Amino acid sequence: MTYIVSSGALNSTHYPLLNSPDLNPVDYSIWSIMEQRVYQIRTLDKLRQRLVAVWNELEQHLIDSAIDRWRRRLSACVREKGSHVEHKL
Predict the structure, then answer these.
(1) Is residue 88 a part of any domain in this protein?
(2) Which of 40, 45, 59, 83 is deepest in the core (most CB within 10 A)?
(3) Residue 42 DSSP class
C-alpha cells in the first residue's frame, strides 16, 4: 500500500478507499473460508480456540490468491469512487 500511495497512484481523494473491506484480503476472501471451518462451534471459548487454530492452518495458496486479487479490487474501488464493488468483480 505504501508504494501505491507514495508513487502517486492514489492521492488524498482516495484515502477513504484505503479502509474499504473490499480492499482487505481477510474481509473479501479469508474470513469466509474461516467461517466455513468454524461454523458449528457453540461456545465462545471454543470459538476463540478454533478461530486461532483455523487461522494457523490456512493454506498459503488461499492467502496468495486473496492477495493476487487485490490490485483488481483496488482499481474497481477507485473506478466506483469508494462504492461497494463485490458485486462488480
Answers:
(1) no
(2) 83
(3) -
Query: Model-level pTM greater than 0.70?
Result: no
Q: Is residue 36 part of a domain?
A: yes
CA 9 vs CA 12, 50, 63, 70: distances in Å: 10, 39, 24, 14
- Between CA 28 and CA 34, with CA 30 as vertex, the angle to 5 degrees is 125
Q: Return per-residue pLDDT of the chain as tens, 89 residues.
A: 444 444 555 555 555 566 666 677 777 778 888 888 888 888 999 999 999 999 999 999 998 988 888 888 878 877 877 677 776 66
- Report d(CA 63, CA 25) in Å as an integer: 8
Could you tell me if residue 40 is inside a domain? yes
